[in-house]
Task: structure prediction
Amino acid sequence: MSLTDEERNILVQLEYEKGVAFMEQAEKIAELGYWDMVANRLYYAVFHAVTALLISDGHKVGTHKGVVLLFGQHYIKTGVFSITEGRLYSQLQTMREKADYVCTFQTSQEEIVPMLVPAKEMIKKIGNILFQVRA
Result:
């Protein structure tokens, strides 16, 4: 099923807004010190922003791993995003999976806090790309 331009724009907007909302949730949850939940929200914040970017450029998104691969192929390898930003996304995915599914794994403040600002900056950068292109 292909999307019309209007449908694509709406979907991009909704995905990006979800990413921004999840970033805000991550920051609020961090104040409470629930680091596994922060890892979850941080990952999903970046995931939804990246998904918005991929959809905006006409890529078909499916699985979480597929989104990571497409992001690497179309935005890291081409220099739109840095290798450091790509690593951050991959680290967030791994941390979220462990925090959600491995009962012996716990994230910590020391692991999560250094990721908050870079994740927020990455989401903002995606927003700048998305809404500059459409302007």
In short: Helices lie at 5-32, 35-56, 64-76, 83-101, 109-134. The CA atoms of residues 49 and 87 lie 16 Å apart. The chain is about 80% helix and 0% strand.
